[in-house]
Amino acid sequence: MNKVAQPIQTEATPEQIRDQKSYLSMGLTDYEYGLIKDNVLHRLPNYTEVGLFSGMWSEHCSYKNSKPVLKKFFTKGQHVVKGPGEGAGIIDIGDNQGVVFKAESHNHPSAVEPFQGATTGVGGILRDIFSMGARPIASLDSLRFATPKTDRDNYFIQQIVAGISAYGNCIGVPTVGGDTAFDDAYEHNPLVNVMCVGLMDLDKIEVGAAAGVGNSIIYVGAKTGRDGINGASFASFQFDSDHESQRSAVQVGDPFTEKLVMEACLDVINNHSEALVGIQDMGAAGLVSSSAEMGSKAGGNGMVLDLDLVPQREAGMSAFELMLSESQERMLLCVRAGHEDDLLKVFADHGVDAVVIGHVTEGHQYQLLHHGELVADVPVDSLASEAPVYHRQSAMPEHLKHADNHQFQPQITNPTETLQEMLGQLTIASKEAIYETYDTQVQTNTVVAPGSDAAVVRIRHYDKALAMTTDVNGRYLYLDPRIGGQMAVAESARNVVASGAVPLGITDCLNFGNPEKPDQFYELDQAVMGMSEACEKFAAPVISGNVSLNNEYDNVPIYPTPMVGMVGLIKGLDHVTTQDFKQAGDLVYVVGKTGAGFNGSQIQKMQTGEISGQLFDFDLDYELKIQQLITNAIQEKLLASAHDISEGGLIMAIAESTFGNQLGVNLSSSLSVSQFFSETQSRFLVSVPAENQAKFEQMVGKEAELLGAVTADNHLFVQATNGYFDVDVDKAFKIWKGALSCRLK
Amino acid sequence: MALVKVYVNYKKSILNPEAQAVNNALQRLGYEDIEDVKLGKYFELTVADGKSKADLDAEINEICDKLLANYNMENYHYEIDETEAAK
Amino acid sequence: MALVKVYVNYKKSILNPEAQAVNNALQRLGYEDIEDVKLGKYFELTVADGKSKADLDAEINEICDKLLANYNMENYHYEIDETEAAK
Amino acid sequence: MKFAVLAFPGSNCEMDLYNAIKDIIKEDVELVPYKSQSLAGFDAVLIPGGFSYGDYLRSGAIARLSPIIPALQAFAKSGKPVLGICNGFQILTEAGLLPGSLQKNVSAKFICKDETLVVNNDHSMFSSAYQQGQLITLPIAHGDGNYYCDQETLKELVANNQIVFKYTNNPNGSVDNIAGITNQQGNVLGMMPHPERAVEDILGSDDGKGVFQSIVKHIKSRGVIYE
Ligand SMILES: Nc1ncnc2c1ncn2[C@@H]1O[C@H](COP(=O)(O)OP(=O)(O)O)[C@@H](O)[C@H]1O
Ligand SMILES: [Mg+2]
Predict the structure, then answer these.
(1) CB-closest option in B13, B21, B71 to A227
(2) List of residues 6+ apart from C61 with CB closer than 8 A
(3) Region of poorest pLDDT, from A103-117, A239-253, A446-460, C2-16
(4) The dihedral of CA A647, A650, A655, A656: what is its sign?
(5) What is the pLDDT of residues D108-135, one digit of tens each?
(6) What is the CA angle A468-A469-A472, rounded to 5?
(7) What is the C-alpha to C-alpha distance for residues D192 and A252, in angstroms, rounded to an integer?
């Protein structure tokens, strides 16, 4: 049964690669191969070199299709310490403190192997944060699934959630929020995005650069195995005769090792900075990408690595495999010559393996030695900064060209029944079944755990806190990628504002289809423009992000889904605000005008089974104005609660606000029953203690409508112009809370 | 009744952090003659009588593929023990 | 080299939630002839040569008592397989 | 008085405990690494939650082989307070300092949420700040919190009044709703809920303070302070 020894695969010769065009199956195009041969090397690349280029020139490492688009992002701001380009971005929050955040997608690995795909997604984004010198203080997860129909579907979702839970809980970083939506647009391409937030002292910034001739390159962490070798570039490339083991190239997350690696790296950064030149995690395209990027970033030097020194979990690994393996929990450091032993000892004390595997050289060449032979010799910039960039064609998708400009009209005969049906929709229903499996409190700074708008994490020993959220509604983007992109940023800002914060900046995961198809590229391009406009409006620059393309199946892409992860600053713990009504007698207002926001809404989906028509209007200036009103009201301490109004509309916001403290409401309004389900943007539901009424009304003027008051009787009653909603809060709560947990049992 | 013993193990190239942790602990405890540790799962399924050997094989393979083993990462094998079950 | 196969199982009286979950899943999937599921751990220790059988037995028992099994909840047994290891 | 907080590779609540003692209880506290072999100078030892050694194999099984464990055993034997929380509880059972063991939750999932506990014994050195029968709210956060012991052991636990905290709404399948027990001498407590996460109103509850205040009261009332 067991083979005695794995035959080492026979590597194609440079001529065979050229003649058989085997670079195609490794992910390089004819054009790219030509560039390497004629413009970069002026000779035929060998097998290992083709591997290096295929990894480094993949979308994942080079952003070759998205770079021109990403340039459009608004990235400036006086508090931005580091914008896109490093492992993660940094924003100054005063007191010599920086908040560091970034998001990462692990859609494709999770689709293949849900549990491990999710764990390694969490592990990867954590490394991005601590490699900047920041301690991770919170994670958030943004998930998109098809509505589960079979046990298998349920199991798949459970495995994703279990993977996030297993990794985050073990390493001791609280998962404090996220968002989850269900739509069959994600049937073949579920989305698993994880965002991590870290905190650092600004005088301890590290960069991923390897400079200074003679300085050493140190490999830290887990041993290298044959895992995930096809990760970054070639989804279907066969590099081994043995198909069985090809399939097994799954990466397994080891949060325990990562915890040791994290503590050790933070120790080195904080206490041994004199020895450290640069540090970077090994992510996509493992060793080659981390080392080549570090070398290229430093500029002006080369690098040589001796692969025999790389710690290896398996025997007989080729240079190709060693360089492209995506084994987890590994870091790469550049260390000042003469300090190597000091640092190796620090790592040893933490129980972490670390070895010198090479050094920075004169010149510009990136050279690899294996078994004493030079197996690759390429200009370091050719791998990293000089990767090709493509300007793709853009064309409006068919479904946008003839979109009906009438808004959908909900059919409602019994408002209470429609409300109850809505409460049970998985996208609307409580996500407690998910976040209950996450440790939301470890580190004991979580002031607002999942269940309100944004999560709030305080900064210990300071009177300030961070609010954080992830949001995006792909349905809106499907109907209008530009305005939908604006709305994604606006919603995240509303969540942050409702929690008492002022937006600081965003990170993103751009989950889109195939950029080589003009209509799918159009969505990406337009979405980014829309997001960028909103970011500028809210003074919330993009400081980091991640791209996941080719989310299509049978030529049908997912909804364009640019996840927005926003962080805001709360300048005083007494500004922290949650969505729950606090006390009977408090007055309830809806702030912001309600229109007919039905195309792309939850009620359209629920009643017609599809999303269609032209997206409803949106005005960024009005949005900003309303958000500022809320911020002022919170800072003046006028509000008892604030909740942003999003999917499901005003009536959902009202119901959700009653759940936390089991209170009721008695409201009446100038809106029609249908309008209660409208998803018009730029609105909040707030409650105001009676003694603040005059002050509040003066502040908001005509932008708020007084609806009534919070009641103690645990009953929801809302009178609309043409009908009323009337339900026991307990009953509504049970439907809302039970819908997802029943599925995930 | 048949007793089916199913062994599920990680494939060779897959990292098994748990086995590694056990191995490290044994080394620290001074058991230096332990050269390698593998760790897998061991299931015992009690199956009602009435199926032919071929049908039983088919069922067990199906169960393993669907549920007990993760084909991305794990191998399995099993033994059918008819006598044990009688006990 | 000897290959030692160690089986660690829950004691009879103990309800194992994981085995229970597997059993429930099998029932839901329609495998109604599965009457019971037990789930334990299966270790393979590769041990360097040079110990007498008695010493090896002593060592393995010690390792199991100290680390591999929890006597409150678990039983273990093991087999020494000298031929396998030679391969 | 001075608390020791042990830190094992993979522990992740040691700073939470440290901060709770230092900032809220306002007593001396020091982290003690697992490699240390002495607990001299400490009045009480706290074993934090987390995933020591990844909780690989069984929760707490590998941690209990650490160099600090003999010192911990001696410390416990001397009658001074030892409190293990969550993973700390698991380590104490694996180390034989508390009876029984902690199995996977019946749901087979990790659970993080607030639970209401009833104080079942307000005489212990960990619970004297509470009233008998008092209801308190503490968060739980564990995958293996399902306390198991055989019937005979349970009888002893009850007879000796070793069950200090019980769940009012059993979240994990624990025998007899047990959330926390002491050893027979009463100086070693293991509990799954996290009192250190409930020491400030802004974090949702300060019901957990009583556990630490009880220890301080115990030490100070004895007038024996090891410094
Ligand atoms: N996958 C998830 N992980 C953690 N928390 C989640 C997840 N999905 C939703 N939540 C939490 O549930 C609450 C409601 O989420 P959501 O409906 O997306 O809020 P909103 O519409 O206000 O953005 C939030 O507190 C959110 O953080
Ligand atoms: Mg919200």
Answers:
(1) B13
(2) none
(3) A239-253
(4) positive
(5) 899 999 999 999 999 999 999 999 999 9
(6) 155
(7) 29
User: Based on the number of CB atoms within 10 Å of its own CB, is D179 exposed (0-12), middle (13-18) or buried (19 or more)?
Assistant: buried
Over residues D14-18, mean pLDDT: 98
Q: Which of A331, A364, A383 is the last residue of a domain?
A: A383
Q: What integer is the mean pLDDT of A353-381?
A: 91
Please give the average per-residue pLDDT across D4-23, as a whole number: 97
- Per CB-CB distance under 8 Å, the chain B contacts of A257 are 17
Residue A169 structure tokens: 């809980």
Question: Nearest CA of chain A to the CA of C6: how many Å?
Answer: 20
* Domain membership flag for residue D159: yes
Q: Is A643 helix (H, G, I), strand (E, B) or coil?
A: strand
Q: What does each of the 87 residues of chain B score in pLDDT, given as a tens digit?
A: 889 999 999 887 788 999 999 999 999 889 989 999 999 999 999 998 888 889 899 999 999 988 899 888 889 999 998 765 444
Provide the CATH number for the domain around residue C16.
3.30.1280.10
First to last CA, chain A: 38
The answer as to whether D30 is a domain residue is yes
Beta strands in A109-249 (DSSP E): 135-145, 175-182, 191-201, 216-221
Residue ranges making up the domain that contains C67: 2-86
Residue A239: pLDDT above 50? no
D84 found inside a domain: yes
Q: Is residue B59 within 8 angstroms of chain C, CB to CB?
A: yes
| Structural domain boundaries enclosing D94 | 2-222
pLDDT above 50: residue D11: yes
Q: Which domain holds residue A611?
A: 577-745
- pLDDT value, residue A626: 98
Residues 6+ away with beta carbon under 8 Å from A208: A86, A87, A131, A278, A279, A280, A290, A293, A294, A297
For residue A4, list chain C residues with Cβ-Cβ distance below 8 A. 87
Q: Considering the domain boundaries, does residue A442 fall inside one? A: no
Domain boundary among A349, A383, A417: A383
CA–centroid distance, A642 to ligand 2, in Å, is 10
Q: Could you give the CA distance from residue A616 to residue A516 in angstroms, rounded to a whole number?
A: 29
CA distance A161 to chain D (A): 10
Residues A507-526, mean pLDDT to the nearest whole number:
96
No. of H helices and E strands in chain B? Answer: 3, 3
| Model pLDDT, residue A248 | 43
Is the residue at A468 inside a domain? no
ipTM over 0.90: yes
* The predicted structure's pLDDT at residue D177: 98
Q: Cβ(A557)–Cβ(A107) under 8 Å?
A: no
What is the reported pTM? 0.93
What CATH number does residue A293 fall under? 3.90.650.10
State whether residue B9 is helix, strand or coil: strand
**pLDDT at res. D224:** 53
Chain D residues with CB under 8 Å of a chain A CB are 9-10, 12-13, 15-16, 19-20, 49-51, 53-56, 109-113, 139, 141, 143, 194, 196-197, 202-204
- Name the minimum distance, in Å, from the CA of C6 to any CA of chain D: 14
- Write down the pLDDT at residue C71: 87
B–D CB contacts, 8 A cutoff, strictly below: 20
Query: For residue D49, what is the DSSP state?
Result: -
- A237 pLDDT band (50/70/90 cuts)? very low
CATH number of D139's domain: 3.40.50.880
CA separation (Å) from A383 to A29, A224, A330, A366, C65? 15, 21, 20, 9, 54
In this structure, is residue A31 part of a structural domain?
no
> Domain tally for chain D?
1
Residue A208 lies in a domain: yes
- Domain count across chain C: 1
Helix (H) or strand (E) holding C50: none
Q: Which of A142, A160, A180 has the most ligand 1 atoms within 8 A of CB, as the residue to mutate? A: A180
Structure tokens at D212: 């630490």
